[in-house]
Write a structure and sequence with these properties.
mainly beta; cell wall; 2 domains; Glyco_hydro_28; Pectate Lyase C-like; polygalacturonase activity; cell wall biogenesis/degradation; two-stranded antiparallel sheet; glycosidase
Length: 416
């Protein structure tokens, strides 16, 4: 394909731009909105916003053009303008020669054809430093077409449905001003990411949609999640092994299963979660509030330095939980002596938590007999009962194999 020259009228003047050819063998119109910004519009690479055409290749062409453009002064912007863009499974892989911004202003729609459902990722980003995703647009996982195919509770060999957005080995990233609806599986997954900021996002799926976690974090450090609304059919935020230095604040969670650490202890390799700070968050009509969950008869692992503070609960079924008998395919159950578990839980604080519980036991701290929970602190708790059982007047607490101390006022009365 022959190279060509494009003339663009800007600010009343005619500027001459040289367009580069890349290995993807396509032409790109590069719009310059400022000296520090190069814009790569997916429409110029052949994208069609009709909601039906598969735009995966057009999106990849725009990305790789931006990824290879050397911008010494600023960022390269992949622009997805207004319109409905259908995209099949697609991955954007670096490293890139300049920082990349995805400006999503339109709507991205996932496939509705069952033959295209099964994969671990719908839209993926890998090995990119300095990635920003913004623009106020929406990604629609069209999960209602796929949820009937989720049979994992009864089929151990079930096929994987895709996460809507997956970030692997993305450093110094930012995701802001974005909406994700009806994911087939998890909305956002972070793996091996470092220094990543998620703010002002809205993630929603029906309460009965299976495994539609809002954000799942693993093997990642220095992650911040703030000023966001998450309402799904599973955990609003889940932190699994390798999550370290995670700061979560000003998040509205509901419906869903709350904000969880774990589950841990299911793998032979030693797992860990540490340095977790959940503060100034609100839970509305969730199955759980703040939770640490580990598997029974666990392999050696640990959870340490966790703080839940400034939390508001409104009609939450299980506001405060440490559950070392967690099984994803069975109901939580109580027993005087728990099975042996190898996950050590140390230095956990629940502080300034108030609101209402729909269950009688508002505080459940059930730890392993072999490795009791250490240095657990409960303080300034006020959780009233709003369930439907008439003879219950107030909430209670239940602690098993927990060592720690209470402080301040606690309602229900503490069990430490």
């Amino acid at each position: 394909m022959a190279s060509f020259l494009s003339f663009v009228v800007l600010a009343g003047g005619l500027f001459f731009l040289s367009l580069h050819m890349f290995a993807v063998s396509a032409q790109f119109y590069v719009e310059s909105s400022s000296p520090a910004k190069k814009i790569f519009n997916v429409l110029s690479s052949g994208a069609n916003p009709d909601g039906k055409t598969d735009n995966s290749e057009a999106f990849k062409k725009a990305f790789y053009a931006a990824c290879q453009w050397i911008n010494l002064k600023g960022q390269n912007v992949v622009l997805i303008p207004s319109g409905n863009f259908m995209v099949n499974h697609v991955s954007f892989v670096g490293p890139c020669k300049s920082p990349i911004v995805f400006s999503l202003q339109g709507v991205l729609k996932a496939p509705s054809n069952p033959a295209l459902f099964f994969s671990d990722t719908w839209i993926g980003f890998r090995y990119i430093n300095g990635l920003v995703i913004e623009g106020g647009g929406t990604i629609d996982g069209q999960g209602a077409f796929a949820w009937p195919y989720n049979d994992c509770k009864r089929n151990p060999k079930c096929k994987t449905l895709p996460a809507s957005l997956r970030f692997d080995f993305v450093n110094n990233g930012k995701l802001q001003n974005l909406r994700s609806i009806n994911s087939k599986n998890v909305h956002l997954t972070l793996f091996a990411c470092h220094n990543f900021d998620i703010t002002n996002v809205k993630l929603t799926a029906p309460n009965d949609s299976p495994n539609t976690d809002g954000i799942k974090i693993g093997a990642s450090t220095n992650i911040k999640i703030s000023h966001s609304i998450i309402g799904t059919g599973d955990d609003c935020i889940a932190m699994i092994s390798g999550s370290e230095n995670i700061d979560i604040f000003d998040v509205l969670c509901g419906p869903g299963h709350g904000i969880s650490i774990g589950s841990l202890g299911n793998n032979i390799e030693k797992e860990f979660v540490k340095g977790i700070n959940v503060r100034n968050c609100t839970f509305i009509s969730t199955q759980n509030g703040v939770r640490i969950k580990t598997r029974p008869s666990s392999f050696p692992s640990f959870v340490s330095n966790v703080s839940f503070s400034g939390i508001t609960m409104k009609d939450v079924n299980n506001p405060l939980i440490i559950d070392q008998q967690y099984s994803p395919n069975a109901e939580w159950f109580y027993q005087e002596k728990l099975n042996a578990g190898g996950v050590m839980i140390n230095n956990v604080k629940f502080e300034d938590i108030r609101g209402t519980s729909t269950s009688e036991i508002a505080i459940k701290l059930h730890c392993s007999a072999e490795f009791p929970c250490q240095n657990v602190k409960l303080g300034n708790i006020n959780l009233a009962y709003t369930g439907s059982t008439r003879n219950i007047k107030q909430t209670t607490s239940s602690c098993v194999n927990v060592k720690g101390q209470p402080f301040g006022r606690i309602q229900p009365p503490g069990c430490l």
